Amino acid sequence: MAFVINNLKDNSNVAIADQLGGFTVLEYISDLSCTSVAAAEANYYMSKSNMRRKQLMIEINNSEIMMKAGAMQYTVGSMEMTTGVKGVGGLMRNLVSGAVTGTSAIKPLYKGTGTIMLEPTYSYIWLIDVDNDHIAIEDGLFLACETTLDISVVARSNLSSAALGGEGLFNLSARGKGVLALQAPIPSEEAVVIELQNDVLKVDGNFALMWSNTLQFTVEKSGKTKMGSAASGEGLVNVYRGTGTVWLAPL
Q1: Count of CB atoms within 10 A of residue 126's CB?
Q2: What confidence tens digit (pLDDT) does each residue in 101-141 have?
Q3: What CA dihedral angle connects 123, 127, 133 and 136, to 10 degrees?
Q4: Beta partners for 131?
Q5: What's the CA gap between 149 and 15, in Å, rounded?
Q6: Reported pTM
Q7: Which of 55-59, 133-137, 157-161, 189-193 is predicted least confidently?
Q8: 188 DSSP assignment
């Protein structure tokens, strides 16, 4: 079996924004499907603000990927899709993990040889080479990954503090070696990357998009006393302590 996809990568209106392994981020330079003046005006200002539609293309060759449920637009080639759920016990574990992390309970697996196109999005798509690392991911960012990665749920070290800090009590984590695709609110080149060596990062708000799972997360008062916290106007802050890396959205 063989196939050719025409007018996609070879389309002059499509740019390759990023590529890692079999994962390719396609970006549409202009929206050529405007059917009204209002849509054309909106498209003009969106393009000036770097708001362009993007699509993730995943090409697999006798391999397997996991994907966010409902993200697939179409597939071409010889592959099979499974839920990756084994029995009622597996379904219940997925339902629980989906509920606590804010992601879909069932994440489809695509195995075989072919091309998978995901739905267009105006969000930014990050391709991350997880190289024998273990990283935690902010709720709702997961898009797809190679199944060589172990995707699991990690709990906060202090659950009551996590609730106070505006962060989820649980997060997805990716461990091992493989490509991870995230759907983020900012372009990757805008992320502030902070590397800690037995040090402390305090963040006022949930601006952290990813962080090393080696870091301890707590929520603490910004001042030493309640009065001091109130006077500073900050109150509680998210604290990442130890050795590892944190990726922050600056805005």
Answers
A1: 22
A2: 445 557 899 999 999 999 999 999 999 999 999 999 988 89
A3: 10
A4: 177
A5: 28
A6: 0.81
A7: 157-161
A8: G
